[in-house]
Specification:
By secondary structure, the chain is an alpha/beta fold. It is built from 18 helices and 15 strands.
Length: 433
């Protein structure tokens, strides 16, 4: 794709990115104020904020044969993993374009569903992504085993196989499994990820890319570390987007050391989920136009052309959470961590809140519940719980409680099945208000 050029005023020309305001704005649909503001922005050289949806518009008509795979493509595929589709749980599956035409997306209890569905529909309409075939989709949730797992295979136009792992969904069991990583060397979803990757690799000899957001990023890295050396040799790249780090035993293991150089890790400025665990691959910090925990949503991450907008380091809030978690991990054993996780989630459940705004309005009651619920914990865990709940309140993490309440709606519905109006999250929240 050949981009138009503009002069920088000194005789030198540079390409005009599609994410830079048009040097000659179309004024026919603008009022006088918008025209003045637009021209002022051009004169200051300001770029418009762009995200994955903008990327589809700009990059959508360019195939992988012209513009090779990049980090933003990986994020798009990782975010796609959150959707359930009918008819792709077999070796044939459907292309994205076919899935959109046949309306195969199933509504599920997952955060940002509408935004992710809109992203899928935009991808399906592009030359770049529309022909990607999805197959061997699987989704499992087992509360007794503490398992929430979902993965999909994607046949990419560049001849590679992309295996995508879903992150934490809207179920309580999924969020708890994230925290269980702090005291369990291996959680059920990680074991499932290794098994899935090995089976996917048996289909043929293509190079493989792994992608995942949130817990899905951890699963991608864990599966790469736990698979056979023969499969590891075929891994081209491993992408973790705001995914938790690794347990010490995994990090120091031979399998992880064999693939650590292939891991590409990205976190937003206020990373919370990505700061969990003791050991992390060196990460790139991406600029987000959201605040607090909302930055975990990939659709808020800022993009410039085929790359992310980046900043030098995570912000002070993320550093505080990281330091708190790491200090606690260093000063406690596995039994104490398990007890802390149980207490933390019991405290969140007992607040009786359903939304972040309710938790903010009942801050005193929440902190009182923390004090009562942590009386029997060891000192380090008590301090960690109190500090983390306070941070969650200030950063918008209170909606963990809402996710817990949505669990009951899911237990009445088969995975991927549409919710009735009576069983909708809104109706459930109304019953508990």
């Amino acid at each position: 794709m050949i981009l138009p050029e503009r002069s920088d005023g000194g005789g030198r020309k540079e390409p005009v990115s599609p994410f830079v305001r048009n040097p000659v704005p179309d004024c026919r649909s603008m009022d006088a104020g918008e025209i003045r503001n637009g021209i002022a922005g051009i004169e200051r050289g300001k770029r418009t904020m762009a995200n994955l949806m903008d990327y589809m518009v700009w990059r959508g008509d360019i195939g992988f044969d012209i513009s090779p795979w990049n980090d933003v493509d990986a994020l798009a595929m990782a975010n796609l993993c959150y959707l359930n589709f009918q008819g792709i749980d077999n070796d044939r599956g459907w292309t994205l374009a076919e899935a959109k035409r046949l309306e195969l997306v199933r509504e599920t209890i997952v955060s940002c569903f509408e935004g992710r569905k809109a992203q899928f529909e935009a991808m399906a309409d592009t030359v770049r992504f529309g022909g990607i075939r999805m197959h061997h989709f699987i989704t499992l949730t087992d509360e007794e085993q503490g398992l929430q797992f979902s993965a999909t295979c994607y046949d990419m136009p560049d001849g590679t196989l992309c295996v995508g792992f879903r992150g934490t969904d809207g179920t309580f069991v999924g969020w708890r499994e994230d925290f269980n990583m702090s005291w369990q060397t291996t959680v059920p979803a990680q074991e499932a990820a290794v098994f899935y990757l090995e089976r996917a690799a048996e289909m043929d000899e293509r190079p493989i890319r792994l992608v995942g957001h949130s817990k899905g990023g951890n699963l991608a890295a864990f599966a790469a570390a736990g698979c056979s050396p023969a499969v590891q040799d075929r891994l081209r790249e491993i992408y973790s987007f705001d995914g938790p780090g690794m347990d010490r035993e995994v990090f120091e293991g031979e399998g992880y050391q064999r693939i650590v150089g292939k891991i590409h890790s990205f976190v937003p400025q206020t990373s919370i989920v990505g700061m969990m665990m003791e050991y992390h691959r060196a990460y790139t910090v991406v600029k987000s136009d959201a605040s607090g925990i909302s930055q975990h949503d990939p659709l808020t991450w800022q993009i410039y052309g085929p790359r992310f907008e980046t900043v030098e380091k995570i912000d002070a809030n993320a550093e505080t959470i990281s330091d708190t978690l790491h200090e606690w991990l260093l000063k406690t054993n596995r039994e104490e961590r398990a007890e802390m996780v149980d207490t933390l989630f019991s405290v969140l459940e007992n607040t009786k809140a359903t939304t972040f705004s309710e938790m903010m309005g009942e801050r005193l009651r929440t902190l009182t519940g923390v004090a009562l619920g942590t009386r029997d914990l060891d000192p380090e865990s008590r301090k960690a719980v109190t500090k983390l709940v306070g941070l969650f309140l200030s950063l918008g993490f209170g909606n963990l409680v809402e996710r817990y309440r949505l669990r009951r709606a899911e237990t009445r519905t088969e995975p991927g099945e549409n919710l009735s109006e009576e069983d909708s999250p809104e109706s459930e929240a109304g019953k508990n208000s």
